Amino acid sequence: MTGSCFAERLGHFLDLTEKERAALARLEERERTLKRGQMLRRENDGSDEIYVLRHGWMMSYVYLDDGSRQILRLHFPGDLIGSSNIAYRDAAESLTAITDAVVCPFEKQALRTLFDDHPRVAALLFAVSQAERVSLTDRLASLGRTSARARVGALLLDMLHRIRFMRKDVTNSFELILTQEEIGDATGLTAVHVNRMMRALAEEGMIERRNGSVTIVDERALAQASAYFNRFAELDTSWFPAPRG
Amino acid sequence: MTGSCFAERLGHFLDLTEKERAALARLEERERTLKRGQMLRRENDGSDEIYVLRHGWMMSYVYLDDGSRQILRLHFPGDLIGSSNIAYRDAAESLTAITDAVVCPFEKQALRTLFDDHPRVAALLFAVSQAERVSLTDRLASLGRTSARARVGALLLDMLHRIRFMRKDVTNSFELILTQEEIGDATGLTAVHVNRMMRALAEEGMIERRNGSVTIVDERALAQASAYFNRFAELDTSWFPAPRG
DNA sequence: CGTCGAGTTGACATAATTCAAGTAAGGTGG
DNA sequence: CCACCTTACTTGAATTATGTCAACTCGACG
């Protein structure tokens, strides 16, 4: 065990104390391995579990009555996932592994100690969840007010930046992994139309595609064409309580 | 001063202690009055302020480069608004009053005491913000995967349920207040098309319109047609810390 | 070698937008 | 109190973006 990837992720924003690290590590005592495509949790399941994603990519999504699917969010290592049942008894979204993945499940009761003993970590969780909320509002504006081409472009840029955030060696190229159908379910489009938009972006010289990987050739132009705004500003930690102990 | 409407709202989920109520009331010491249409805060403004909405309706929204607007969320009394700068230094959304309104501004530093001294209230804030996140994912699915008619229907139902939550005497009729352009900006449609969809819903006998008010005639059918899921389940407070003091 | 899932492309259908013209209601200054 | 403005709402016709259906290619895999 290499230590808590959750603590590592949160440590980007804050110098955690030993005690704080230990408290976070306690959330990752158990591990569960998932194969590509395997479902971790289904919408409406009652469960006390929340997860820290340790390795691999996952996605959260819902199905509508007509059988269509909306992908709500892609998840990368260090993400806290399944957080809808922090608020509710029953899960609001399904969770499935996009690649082989490892998650650390913990019961939400474990958050109690965190809020009681480590108010600064609680504040950090709260701030991170607000940042996630902002990310969702960006997606909302993308789906509500931009063209198909812009939505696909914004998704690609979001993936690039989030991968970069994890691995500083990644510059402008990454393995796509998602099928065009999944991209469609994330952007509210059909797989066929996603295909056309990717071709369009490629013909315009903004991206290149080879095998399963994408290169963002002209990041500035793509961001412009996609109404994409990079939210990777620093978190504002100025209001946080002092560390305990 | 009639006491904290924030505490009143949060008290729906939990029996707050006197000390907890007092701590929340401290967030509402100042008041600011807004006229219909008045902007409280602009996107990208740097500000340490967060607000509790005390009276009236407000909305949060963003503008895109092409001048189009996406309304992110409607806000009702008791809502915590402007929460994007809990995470960031600069505001991610603009805030404007839809009706005459009263807000109580407070500096985010005030949250520090709350997290330090009242972990149970902090947990409640966190849970409520997760519920808001789920509400955003519902909107995402609505915009991404449902028809214009369904989006308008879902917005009407959401408004109905949120108004009911505040005022138990409201049954199935309310004053719309929003213009069709605003409905369009919330649902990702043009004002013209909103108009047609409202007519369609009326012709199908699901709603009635008179002057500025809407009556939901057949709530079940409308919910069905709009892929609407009512999230007003109880919050799960089982994991919260014990009250302090 | 055959099958299967994913990607690609064309022809056609449909939902939503755009443009344009008009009506209704409320507010304001003379 | 009226005449005028302005803003919101309404409706039709033409246009465009996206979806649907269908056929085909390609590579992976058993």
Automatic annotation (TrEMBL), chains A, B:
InterPro entries, per database record: cNMP-bd_dom, cNMP-bd_dom_sf, Env_Response_Regulators, HTH_CRP, RmlC-like_jellyroll, WH-like_DNA-bd_sf, WH_DNA-bd_sf
Pfam families: cNMP_binding (PF00027), HTH_Crp_2 (PF13545)
GO cellular component: cytosol
Entry keyword Transcription: yes
Keyword terms: DNA-binding, Transcription, Transcription regulation
Organism of derivation: Sphingomonas sanxanigenens DSM 19645 = NX02
Gene Ontology molecular function: DNA binding; DNA-binding transcription factor activity
Domain Cyclic nucleotide-binding: 12-99
Protein name according to UniProt: HTH crp-type domain-containing protein
Residues of the HTH crp-type domain: 146-220
TM stretches of this protein: none
UniProt KW Ribosomal protein keyword: no
